[in-house]
Amino acid sequence: GRLVEAPVDWALDDAHYYAFNRGAGAMNTPQDVYKAWEWEFDGVYQYGSAFNLTMHPQHTGRLAKMMVLERFIQYARSHSNVEFMRCIDVAKNWTAAGMKTPD
Length: 103
Fold this sequence. Notes:
47% of the residues lie in helices and 0% in strands. It is mainly α. The protein has one domain (10-96). Helix 2 packs parallel to helix 3. It starts with 13 loop residues before the first helix and ends in a 7-residue tail after the last helix.
């Protein structure tokens, strides 16, 4: 089969916000991350694109951060025409619709 790449962005990767970096100072709070995701979602929603959130168990898998994720999911679901899909299903829909992939 063809390779379909799901685009990723550091703004939607939990490691960017939660990973400890000795030289970067204090880590972001879960509330900071929620607000960043909310703003990113609003932009994607307004212009009709995909929101591909990347999460790692060592970051978002912590309790307070899971609560932020649940709150964000509720926020996204409060909008019309929002669908949650696995990347494999997005790729299948893409190819089934006859969309082109690079050779």
